[in-house]
Amino acid sequence: MAGSPEQFRGQSRLPRFAAPLRYDLVLRPDLAACTFSGSGSAAVAVSAPTRFLVLNAAELAVDRSSIRFQDWAPTEVAQFEEDEILVLGFGRELPLGEGVLSMDFTGTLNDQMRGFYRSKYEYNGEARNMAVTQFEAADARRCFPCWDEPAFKAKFKITLEVPAELVALSNMPVVKETVCGPLKTVYYEESPLMSTYLVAIVVGLFDYIESSTLEGTKVRVYTQVGKTSQGKFALDVGVKSLDLFKDYFATPYPLPKLDMIAIPDFAAGAMENYGLVTYRESALLYDEQLSSASNKQQVAITVAHELAHQWFGNLVTMEWWTHLWLNEGFASWVSYLAVESIFPEWNNWTQFLDETTSGLRLDALAESHPIEVDVNHASEIDAIFDSISYDKGASVIRMLQSYLGAERFQKALASYIKKYAYSNAKTEDLWAVLEEETGEPVKDLMTTWTKQQGYPVIYAKLNGQDLELEQAQFLSDGSSGPGMWIVPMTACCGSYDLNKKFLLKGKTDTMHIKDFAATQSGQNFWIKLNIDQTGFYRVKYDDELAAGLENAIKAKKLSLMDMIGIVEDSYALSVACKQTLTSLLRLLNAYRHESDYTILSHVTSVCLSVNKISTDANPDLSSDIKKLLIKLLLLAAKRVGWDPKDGESHLDVMLRSLLLIALVKLGHEETINEGIRRFHIFLEDRKTPLLPPDNRKAAYLAVMRTVSTSNRAGYDVLLKIYKETSEAQEKSRILGV
C-alpha cells in the first residue's frame, strides 16, 4: 500500500490488513508522581499487502526511536490525536504472516476515571493514590498502544513493576513475583483471547476475603483495609451466580479465578473486566448495620449483572459497539434471572418491571434511538450507554423468551455461546442461532424491535363477540409515529387459565372471544392483554374493558405484574392526553388497600409524578389532588409504620422506606414532623434504632424541607454528616435528597 500516513486521518475504524494475536506488556505506575511508563510488544498478523501499521494511541508519549517491527524501524511515525490513532510507515511492504511490533511509551495516571487513572483512598488517616484501569468503551489506548476495537481479540501477558508493599491485580492469576529493593515485579498468566476494553489492572493497599465455586474456581472480594466484612454478601452472591451461569449457559466459567474489587473513585457503577471486576464501593459493599435493604438488593443485581458478562460480553463479544445491547441487555436480563434464583422471596421478576418502565418512558420520546445504533466513531459510543441499551434491551429479551418458551430459549442461548466462544458476534448471529434452534421467525420478529426506535400502543375495543386490536407508535407528547412492529400478543379472560398467544403482524387484527369469554359475565368479565407485562408495549382499553379491569384489581384477580402494567399504562396514556386525569385518579383509588411493595413502588411513583404535573399545570387543583394521593398511600404507610417489626420481610422493609419518602415528598405534615423528630435523636446517637438506614432518606428529606435562604441549619447538619461518614452508601443517601 503506497501513500502517506495522512490517508488514515479521519477514519472511523481501524483498517483490517493487520491484527494483533498476542500482547506482552510491562507497565510501571508511579503513584507518587501520577505517571506511568511501559514497554509493549505485540505479535501481529499481516494479512494483506501494506507498508503501514495503524493502531490506537491517545494521551501517550511514544518513544519513536524504540519502535520496531521485527528489526525494521519505521520511516514515518504520525500520531493523530483527534482520531486517537498511531500510524507507522515502513520503507517497504511488510511480509505477510506474523511479525512482532514493539515500542516504549509513557503516560499520566489521570484524574478523569478513564484509561489508566488514579483513585484516592485513606490508610491510617493518610491520603494515598491507587492506580486503576477503566477501558470501556475505548480507553485502553490511554494505557498502551493497541488495536482498541472489540473485534481485535488477542491474548495478553501482563507484567507490573510496583512498590513491594502494594497489592497488584490483573485479569489473570500471578505466576511469580520477584522483589528488588522497594519494588517488586509481578508476572501474570497469559489470558485467553479477549478484547482490549476488558483488560484490567489495579494497584493499591487492599484486604480480601475469598471463597470457591462448586467447580473450585477461587473467588475473592478486595476492599480497602478494614472493610472486608462489608464484602461478604457480594462474595456469596458472586459464587452462587457463577455456579448458576455455568449451568444456564452450559459452559464453565472460562478463567481460573475471579476477583471483585471496590474502588472509591469510579465513574461507572461497575465494569465487567475479565477476571477482575471493578465496582464503585456502594455497588459492591454491604454493611448489615449501615446499609439499607435497597442497597442490599442493588449489590446483588450489580454483582449478578457483571458476572453474567463473563459469558455474554467477555467470552462472546459484540463485533462493534452498534451491538452494545447484546452485552448490556442480556446482562441486565440474566442478572434478574440469577437474583430470582438466589433470593426468591424478593419477587425479583416483578421488580424487573422497574427496568421495563424505565425503558418505556425513555423510548416514548421523539428523541429516542433504536436499540441498535450505528456508531461511526469512538467519540459516539458513550451516548448509547443508556436505558435503551440496558432496560429496553433486557425487556425485549424477556419478551422473546416468553414468546419462544423458557426451555427452548435457554437451549438456543447455550448453543450461541458455544458457537461464538472466544470470538465476536453481531445481533444477526444471535437471531440466526435462535431461529435455527427453535424454527421460529426470530429475525423478522426482532428486527422490528431492535432497528427502529419506539414501541406501539395497542388499542383494544370490544365489538360484540370480537376484540378489535390496532397498533400505533406511542409517543408521550400525544402524537403517533410511523413505526410498525410484529407484536407477540398474549391475552387472558377472567382467568389466567383462559389465555391466548399470537403475533400481531399488521396494523389491525381481530381476536374472536365468543368461546374465550363464554364463562365470564358481569363483574367477573375482564380481558387483560400482555399477560405479566412480558411485551414491550402499552395497551389502551375501551371504557368497558377498562371498567372490567378496575373491578378485577379491586377483587385481586390479577397478577402483581399485571396490576403494575395497568397503572403504568394508564399513567403514560394520561400524560399523552389519550385518557383523562380523572380516569387515572379513579384507577389509582382501586389500589388503596394494596400492601405489596412491588405494586406500591409503581403506584407511589405515579402518585409523585401526578403531584408534580398537577402542581405545574393547575395550582388551584393541586392541593385537592395532593390530599387524595396522601390518603391513597396512608393506609399502607400506617400498617408498616416507622419502626421495624420482628420477622418482617425484605420487601416490607423496602416498602416502609418507599412510603415514608413518598409522604414526605407529598408534604404530609405528620410524616415530616416525625422524620425531623427522629433525625434530632439520631444526631445525638448515630446508632439509635429509631432511625435505621432504611428510614434515613425520609428523615433527611424531611429536614431539607425546613431549609430556606434564611435557615440553612438542616443543610449544614447534613453536610457535616456527609463529610464525617466513610460509608459510600450513606454519602449517596445524603446526595440523593
From TrEMBL:
It comes from the Eukaryota. SUPFAM superfamilies: Leukotriene A4 hydrolase N-terminal domain (SSF63737), Metalloproteases ('zincins'), catalytic domain (SSF55486). The lineage of its organism: Eukaryota, Viridiplantae, Streptophyta, Embryophyta, Tracheophyta. The keyword Flavoprotein does not apply. Pfam families: ERAP1_C (PF11838), Peptidase_M1 (PF01433), Peptidase_M1_N (PF17900). Residues 233-449 form the Peptidase M1 membrane alanine aminopeptidase domain. Residues 20-198 form the Aminopeptidase N-like N-terminal domain. The record marks 390 as: Transition state stabilizer. This is Aminopeptidase. The active site is at residue 306. Its EC number is 3.4.11.-. Residues 526-735 form the ERAP1-like C-terminal domain. It is found in: Microsome membrane. GO terms for molecular function: metalloaminopeptidase activity; peptide binding; zinc ion binding. Binds 1 zinc ion per subunit. Keywords: Aminopeptidase, Endoplasmic reticulum, Hydrolase, Metal-binding, Metalloprotease, Microsome, Protease, Zinc. It is a peripheral membrane protein. Belongs to the peptidase M1 family. It is an enzyme of class 3 (hydrolase). Its cofactor is Zn(2+). GO terms for cellular component: cytoplasm; extracellular space; membrane. Its main location: membrane. It comes from Triticum turgidum subsp. durum. Zn(2+) binds at residues 305, 309, 328. One of its GO terms (biological process) is proteolysis. InterPro entries: Aminopeptidase_N-like_N, Aminopeptidase_N-like_N_sf, ERAP1-like_C_dom, M1_APN-typ, Peptidase_M1, Peptidase_M1_aminopeptidases, Peptidase_M1_dom, Peptidase_M4/M1_CTD_sf.
